Amino acid sequence: MRKTTQHMRTAGAILISSVSIAVVVSGCGGGGGGGSTASLSGLYGPSKSDACSGSPVRGGNLVYERQAATQTTDPLNPRNGNGDIFAYNLIYSGLVRSDPTGQTNKIVPSLSDRWTVSPDGKTYTFHLRPGIKFSNGQPVTSDDVAWTLNRFGNPKINGIMSAVAIGFGNATAVDPSTVRVQLTKPIASFLYNISIWPAFILPKNLVEKEGNAFYKHPVGTGPFMMKEFAKGSHITFARNPNYWEAGKPYLDSVRFNFVSDSNTRILALRAGDAHVMDVVPFSQVNSLRADKSIVVQAAKVPLFLGLWLNHLKAPLADLNVRQAMQYAIDRPLLNKQIFAGLGTIPNSVLMGFSMDAPDSVVKPYAYDVAKAKQLMAKSKFPHGFSTTLQYPAGTDFYKQLALALQQEFGAIGIHVKLVEQDTATVTNNWFTRKFDMSFPFASFTSDLTVPDEYADFLANWNNGFHGFETSWRNPTIQKQVLQFETTRSDSDRAKLWAQIQQALLTQTPAIAVLHLPFLNAHLPDVCGTNLDGLGSDHLEDTWFAKKAA
Fold it and tell me: 380 — phi, psi (to 5°)?
C-alpha cells in the first residue's frame, strides 16, 4: 500500500473542494461513496463461506453477470477488452498460464508440463502433456502448437497484440510432443507473453479449412466449449469432456449475461437470478458485505483508472498542460468520495505492478492547483482550451469521476465536455483515435503481471500501436523500454524499471487517476472462485455446494 501524498492546503481550500465534489457526486446518481469508506479485509482469495468447507461437487449451471460483452471468439482479434478475454479463457488455453489461484505472479504449466531454456535465453523447448486433446476429441500435436505460435509471431496476423510477440523468431515441431521456439533476442517476459490469448493453441487443420467460420463454433483446449452466442445478450459454455485437468471442470455449464448497468447486475444477484457478478461498484461494497446472502471477493491485480490523452490534439501534446492536469486532480478526495477509500495513489502512468518502485523513489503527483495554474501559464494555452472526455456508460463511478474531473480541470481553464457512450463505442473510438480524452475500458487491467507489455504498448513505436493510441512518442524512453525487455536479471530489470517509471510519469503521455482492487460478488454456495493475477476466473475450479436437505 502506497502512502498518499497531498499538497499542503489551507483549511478553507479543503472545505471548498470537499463540498464541491460531494455535490457533484451526490447529484449524478448511481450511489456515490459520499465520503464513507469501506474495507477489503478478509475479501481476498476464494470464497471462505461455511458452505464451501467440503469437497468439490460436480454439476450445476452457473449464471454470471458480466459488465463487458463478448464480441468475438477470435483470440487474435479482440474487440471489447475483458468482454472477449474472459470468454477466450474458458474456450482456449496455452502452453503455460498465470497461477490460476492468484496467490503468486508466477507462470505455471498448462498444455506443456515442462520446458527448458538455453543459456543465452533465446531457445525454449516445450514438452506437451501426454494425451492432451482439443474439445472435439482430436489430439493436440506439436504441429498445432508450432503453427499457432508462428501465427502469434506474425504481425500481419497478430496485429493487435504484436507487442507481446517481441523477439519471436519461429516455432518448429521437433517431434510429435516437442516444440522448439527460437527468439531473435532474449525476452525476459516471453513466458508471460505466451500465457495469454494470442498464443492460445488452435487446431491447425480446422482453422485452415474453415477460416473465420471456425469462430462460430470454436474448438479449443480450455475447460469449457462454446454452446451458444447471442451477441449483445449472452454467451453460454458447456463442460469440455476432454479438458486436460482430470475431473475438471466441475460445472456442467456457464452462461455470461452481458449487463453493463451495475445496479441491474446487483439486483440479479440478490434475486438469485445470477450466481456471480463482476465489477462491483465501490459505493456498494459496504452494503453488499452487510448482506449475508452475498459474498464479496477482491483480487490484487494490475487495474487502474487510465485517462487516455490524444496527442494529435495540440493542447494535449503540450507537456506543461499534461503535467498541470496531473497536479489539478485531487486524488485523495476522489478516492474517498467516489471509491470508498479503496483506491491507492499511483506513482506511475500505468496500472500498478509488483516491480514498481515505491513512492520514496518515484514520487506521485501531489494535488496542487497553484502549481497546475503556473504550468498552464507556461504552456502554449495560457488561457485554457476546450476538449471532450469520453467514458463508458453503465458503471456508476465513471459518471461521478467524469463530473469531478470536469470541475477540477475547469479550475485551471480546461473546459471539458462529457460524452457518455456504450463501452464498445468508447473502446472502438479509442482504437481508431477518435477521441480527445477517454476512459477507454469499463475495467482497465493489464494482460500480464509484469510491466513489459504496457510499457511496450506505450513507448515502442515499432509495434504499430501509435503510442498505445495516444500518438505520443519519445525515442529516449523507447530505447530504455527495449533494453528493459531484453534484460534477464531481475535486479537489473528492477533498476531499469524505476528509471522508466519515473520518465513516463514525468512525460505523462496518459494519466493514471487511481489504482484499484478488482471486485466480484457471488452467492455463498458458489465455491472455488479463484481469480488469477489478472482478475480472470477460468471457472475450472468453481463448484456449487450441496444445499442442506
Answer: -80, 0
Exposed (0-12), middle (13-18) or buried (19+): which is 284, by Cβ within 10 Å?
buried
Q: Which set of grid coordinates corresponds to residue 445? A: 487491467
C-alpha grid cell, residue 351:
496500472
Question: Are 176 and 478 contacting, i.e. CB atoms less than 8 angstroms apart?
Answer: no
Enumerate the β-bridge partners of residue 543.
527
For the CA atoms of the chain, what is the radius of gyration? 23
Q: What local confidence, expressed as pLDDT, does residue 443 receive?
A: 81
Q: From CA 359, how far away is CA 345, in angstroms rounded? A: 10
Q: What are phi and psi of 409, to 5 degrees?
A: -70, -35
Q: What is the torsion angle, in degrees rounded to the nearest 10, for the CA atoms of residue 435, residue 436, residue 437 and residue 439?
A: 0
DSSP structural state of residue 198: G
**Helices 490-507 and 319-328, packing angle to 10 deg:** 100
DSSP three-state, residue 386: strand
Nearest by Cα to 167 from 179, 152, 146, 148: 152
Which pLDDT value is given to residue 113? 98
Residue carrying C-alpha cell 455446494: 545
User: pLDDT of 336-369, one tens digit each?
Assistant: 999 999 999 999 999 999 999 999 999 999 999 9
Cell of 238: 458447456
Cβ-proximal residues to 414 (8 Å cutoff; 6+ apart), any chain = 315, 321, 325, 328, 376, 384, 385, 386, 387
Strands (E), 311-441: 385-392, 414-421, 437-438
User: For the segment 183-230, what is each residue's pLDDT rounded down to a tens digit?
Assistant: 999 999 999 999 999 999 999 999 999 999 999 999 999 999 999 999
Question: How many whole angstroms separate alpha carbon 447 and alpha carbon 444?
Answer: 10
Helix 475-485 to helix 452-459 angle, to the nearest 10 degrees?
150
Other Cβ atoms within 10 Å of 292 Cβ, number: 8
Annotate 88-124 with DSSP letters as a single string. Answer: HHHH---SEEE-TTSS---EEESSEEEEEE-TTS-EE
CA 388 to chain centre: 24
d(CA 107, CA 124) in angstroms, rounded, equals 14
Residue type, 321: V
Give the span between the Cα atoms of 68 and 88, in whole angstroms: 13
All residues at 6 or more sequence positions from 545 whose CB lies less than 8 Å from its CB, including other chains: 49, 51, 52, 54, 57, 524, 525, 526, 527
- The CA–CA distances, whole Å, from 401 to 38, 209, 321, 418 equal 18, 48, 20, 11
